[in-house]
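Is nicotinamide-adenine-dinucleotide placement plausible here? Inputs below.
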Amino acid sequence: MADICVLGLGYIGLPTASVLASGGHGVLGVDIDAGIVATVNAGGIHIEEPGLRTVVNAAIHSGNLRAATAPEPSEVFIIAVPTPLAENKRADLSYVRHAAQELAACLKPGDLVILESTSPPGTTRDLLAPMLAEATGLKPGEDFHLAHCPERVMPGRILKELIENDRVVGGFTPACAERARDVYASFVEGKIILTDATTAEMVKVLENTYRDVNIALANEAALLCEELRIDFAEVGALANRHPRVHLHKPGPGVGGHCISVDPWFLVERFPENARLIRHARERNDAMPEHVIAETLRMLAGVESPCVAVLGVAFKGNVDDTRESPAIDIVAGLRDRGVEVRPHDPLARRAPFELADLDTALRGADVLLLLTDHDAFRAIAPDHAARLMRGRCVYDTRSLLNRPAWEAEGFTVQVLGSGR
Ligand SMILES: NC(=O)c1ccc[n+]([C@@H]2O[C@H](COP(=O)([O-])OP(=O)(O)OC[C@H]3O[C@@H](n4cnc5c(N)ncnc54)[C@H](O)[C@@H]3O)[C@@H](O)[C@H]2O)c1
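Reply from A.M.:
I modeled the complex. Tokens:
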């Protein structure tokens, strides 16, 4: 019997399972995707994350980690399955429900169930607890322990942050929180703070909402700066010299499956009162249209226009394209008859074909930069000038060295700059 069963072997579950196994726990990793299970059992990984391959490989070879497509009896169950949005911007909790049903068949008195998936406030108390009680006949908080422990790691730094970040542990009862704390204390070096489950859920959703609202403010200010013919990059940098101001950066929209998703959980639950949160989401979701309109303006009068899109991942230096604004921008330009050649050196699972850099640039009228990958800083303007037909750059991330591109004869437009 495993000590700990982790349901969902994605960006969160696989690192968590392998770190727990490295710490000496017997861990069963469960995923409904048989391909993922086979890869992990062979000591491999199916996602790119620095250091993960080594940790998973060592955990499998130590015998402490194995994977399967269904849970087995354990002392602890950690649910790390997706919580995406359904079409109507409502939380899709079907993966959580399914995982709970599966583990209920193995649950026995004294066990601990931890929900790690980011969830609408109230999910542990009002959905998971009654579901598990009904399926097992056991009382949450009395016969078994139940907690919500949200995850705060950042892709690209997951293994480091899993250990170093502070953790909020929310119990169904105070005793449940204490029991869950003991699991995290075995590998977390940050502080572990105990609270109730609904507070922990709200903390996680609010953290991402804070960032979404902050980005929306930056996006709105960027549009105002364009009209004022000044540069948001300068305004933001100067404002951030105030000791209590921390403005985020504007951009072509907000992607990924956290910041662009979680605020909707509050809008769904509080349609009347979560007004600022809804407006922020709508502001950020409108940015792709702004980018499309500006790009079309740059293409005005060009016959058979062609755009090289640099960057499809939702943010710099990651491979993740989920909810990326680039997807809407590419589709929107194509809908308006523009030939678009997207290039991204890192992106995985892009919903369209990607070109290499030179193919994307060859014959293009506009270079449209959408993602702040470090690799794009190294593109030589004279190389682009030799390949491109036009001399226009639209930098939506304020990434490129503007004087160097202008020296090569390019007109450079920067999102948020009216200069
Ligand atoms: N990725 C991040 O950076 C991050 C950060 C903080 C919180 N979160 C949250 O963590 C949760 C998981 O996110 P992720 O990025 O790891 O998702 P993911 O899509 O990378 O992985 C989830 C895995 O769960 C599997 N799965 C689905 N249903 C299952 C079931 N019933 N039983 C077993 N496996 C099942 C899927 O096949 C998939 O492999 C989400 O709620 C997310 O919002 C993610």
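Short version: The chain is about 40% helix and 15% strand.
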